[in-house]
Amino acid sequence: MSNERICAQVDLSAILENLENMHRNLKPGTKMTAVIKTNGYGHGAVPIACAVEDLPYLWGFAVATFEEALELREAGVEKPILILGYVFPSCYEDLARLEIRPACFREDMLEQLSEAGKRAGKPVHIHIAVDTGMSRIGVMPDEDGMAFVRRALALSAEGGLEAEGIFTHFARADEKDLENACGQLHRFSSFIDRIGQECGFRFACRHASNSAGIISLPGANLDLVRAGITLYGLWPSGEVPRDPVPIRPAMTVTSHVVYVRRVPAGTPVSYGGTYVTRAEEVLATVPAGYGDGYPRSLSNWGWVLIRGQRAPIRGRVCMDQMMVDVSAIPGVQEGDRVTLIGQDGDERITMEELGELAGRFNYELACDLNARVPRVYTH
Questions:
Q1: CATH of the domain at 106
Q2: Is 238 within 8 Å of 7 (Cβ atoms)?
């Protein structure tokens, strides 16, 4: 693929640096899981996994689907892979064969996974999901939850399962007020303590912290933490403190100017004529658009960087192109580099800033950059 039309450069050294900085904020002995679901939040799951797998404090990886886990195994990734979402029964024997860990939270999953493990001749390593306040997946930390855990342990004794882990997920650890997250942690810790007291069992992998928790909740640093958005140098929210863990963005997205022309006052620009020049302007056409995942909602609202200066978007962002005003930037010509996300000179466009302008947030913006945008990896 050509990298001239549009390209996302991913700095793997930034990802390694972000991991190191997060690891320094953890208590000794706590290991890390790199969350690389949704193709590494748009950054590229396989190249990232290959770049970080050998880190001694990295337990393994977390993904959202069986297909994502399979892609990693087929690429040669050997460390544990945890699937954070539901896995359908047709995949259960492959989970055992490939030693992929499913999140487990339904009674039928326990029974079917155990049978699949027996058929495969090796147990399925499960991580029990506990719902402490997310209301998404997970058993409740109550009597029904205890019955679920007892059944999982009984099936583990039969050889089809191995109850390796137990985890929960914070719903509001990215807020300044951490009362809600602390409440979730308390419910989770109390449930684990009860399992220990009543069943005499300790899970090898207990985990709760997501990216925000790694930064703001040192008390949630259990056996593992799950590094997601901060792995890529992006912030969970504007309320998460920046000081404890310095991170830097790993991705820069660029294009090039393909056409420059001067237009008179009163010229409508792009579909619908939503922008009409008020004076003579110099417009530059950039061959990137919402077909690449660039937000159409930035029409007449966002900007790009050319020659270290901001050039505002004029008119609607098209599927494959957009027009920007370069009247205030001397000498712009065809072939000039255009920075859509990243830094040029003293100016910078961050995903946080762009996401806020677009009415999205940085997670969504990164994930929406699709396969039509080539990824180039640097070290």
A1: 3.20.20.10
A2: no
